[in-house]
Amino acid sequence: MSLISTVLGSGRRSNIFDPFSLDIWDPFEGFPFTTPLANVPSSTRETAFANARIDWKETPEAHVFKADLPGLKKEEVKVEVEEGRVLQISGERSKEQEEKKDKWHRVERSSGKFLRRFRLPENAKMDEVKASLQNGVLTVTVPKEEVKKAEVKAIEISG
Questions:
Q1: In sequence order, what are the residues at sequence separation of 6 or more whose Cβ sits closer than 8 angstroms to the Cβ of residue 102?
Q2: What is the pLDDT of residue 51?
Q3: Cβ neighbours around 143 below 10 Å, total
Q4: Which of 82, 110, 138, 147 is most buried by its number of CB atoms within 10 A?
Q5: Residue 38 to residue 124: CA distance in whole angstroms
Q6: pTM of this prediction?
Q7: Tell me, what's the pLDDT at 22?
């Protein structure tokens, strides 16, 4: 049994025979080299809200961003436009209040802050950005300027 606790890390499980009591485990924890997880404090790893996954598509009329933000209200999400044609989407999911009398068996939902930034192309109309949040999906629409077709002018050849 001491071998199991050594491999899994001490204090990681409340019961080694209960597979659902395993906390976040970094297989490289304690090694002399650093890993992306090793650079993040364990308290942050357990509560960090993973970066929101965002799709960006371009239609003939607009750039459309869609982000899955289940459980967030529009008051918890910010959509901002910065200088240099930068679209910023950020927000925060609050951690659920813990009662002293409650016994948690598993915590998988993430909480914390997220921030995503996108540099938009020259044809984006930054002053006409619209955003909506419906059924946990944030949709940000950035209209595009009409591409002016090059005017062709015939030149008469003299001679």
A1: none
A2: 66
A3: 17
A4: 138
A5: 40
A6: 0.60
A7: 43
